Amino acid sequence: MSIEHVVLILVGTVLVVFVTGLPIGFTLGSVAMVYALLLWGPSSLSIIAHGALYAMTSFMLVAIPLFILMGMILERSGVANAMYDTMYKWMGPLRGGLAIGTVLICTLIAAMVGIMGAGIVTMGIVAMPEMFKRKYDKRMVMGSIMSGGVLGTLIPPSIPMILYSLYAKQSVGKMFAGGLIPGVILSTLYCSYIGIRCLRNPKLGPALPPEERVDWKEKFVSLRGSILPIVLIIGVLGSIFLGFATPTEASAVGAFGAFICSLIYRKFGLRMLREACYRTMLLTGMIMWIMVGINCFNSFFMAMGGIHLLDGLIVGVNPWAVLIAMQLSLFVLGTFMDDYAIIMIATPIYAPVILALGFDPLWFGILFIMNMQMAVLTPPYGFATFYMKGLVQKDILMTDIWRAVIPFVALQGTGLILVMIFPNLALWLPGLIFKRF
């Protein structure tokens, strides 16, 4: 049987098992073991074992639970409440100002925590009731929270970036630097869209009435709420970019900084710490199980020559056509698969092809992560929509949430195209920061 037929049968089996509801990690791991036994006998399981061992022993993985713990503590520390009070006073008098302020706060949260859910949950609790109270359009409210919340996928310290760097053998620091400008571009696009829509139709996001606005003195006093977040961002990202710490060491700095923030805002307690550690354990455990299963599958796929099959398929094909096809495939995968799983499945396959085609692997990595940011929004599987469903009132349907994300997914696609056309948007800052290395 040719390798082409084996790959088709393998992919078909994975799809059949996947639709039964078995988690993706167990699906890929079990299929790989069964096919390895059928094709090569019991001795082939050593290939699977090596794949699982590699998945669990990379030093870079230490950063993942620490950044997750940092996010879980910050989610409960009161930092978001202080930042929202600042944005409420500064942005409230503008049409759509509370929604714009929500996106800006989510941008700062993304630069602190590195996970998608923290911004959505925090601002869903803090900002959403205020916007509904001010008669904001429900789609504008949900769209601003979800689009801002998922910036944690792209803006460092991003957990998906750490996973991508591990599988693509890229520098985490350079990936972090490469994601900053695209992240700011997307945040600007969201804010511009909200501002223009609300300017044209004030009912979508009415401004605060004059009696609820504050004077300039109170506005400047409220800026104190932004000091701790900025110090934490500088401490984590600055230590990486200035060469004082590796991303793994910076994750420890971030977790300690989050702990200090909770003490300053008087939110620290044993119950809070226990809940943060428990959720960190759950999310880290999920990632690790996915990694084990997918590494087993990738080891089997590589051992049977799958990468050579892909190389043969792209011979003579226009490199840009391959690149665009990859981006489209990632978008499609994002509609029914978790972003972590997509990264771990597609990166070992796509990264060597990108190198063979002569594209910059760092630039492709940023495009990949931008696509993953779209994946967590696109229905029916977008995780961000499920987070939002758990926060909104019962009369808001899932279809309302899906409609709310449509314009913001379109804006994400616009940002992706911009970075694809102008690679320096992703490459200029890493080149500037790391040129001495």
Structural summary, described in words:
- There is one protein chain.
- This protein has 437 residues and is mainly α.
- It has one domain.
- The protein is 76% helix and 0% strand.
- The chain is built from 22 helices and no strands.
- Helix 6 crosses helix 13 (227-241), helix 7 runs parallel beside helix 20 and helix 13 packs antiparallel against helix 14.
Secondary structure elements and their pairing?
Blueprint: H1 3-18, H2 24-40, H3 45-56, H4 63-75, H5 79-91, H6 97-113, H7 116-126, H8 128-133, H9 138-149, H10 159-168, H11 172-200, H12 216-222, H13 227-241, H14 247-264, H15 270-303, H16 306-314, H17 319-334, H18 339-357, H19 361-375, H20 383-389, H21 398-421, H22 424-434
Oligomerization state of this entry? single chain
Shape: globular
Order of helices and strands: HHHHHHHHHHHHHHHHHHHHHH
Integer count of domains: 1
Q: Give the CA-CA distance, first to last residue.
A: 49 Å
Give the tally of β-strands. Answer: 0
The SS-based structural class is mainly alpha
- Helical residues, percent: over 70%
What characteristics describe this protein?
437 residues, mainly alpha
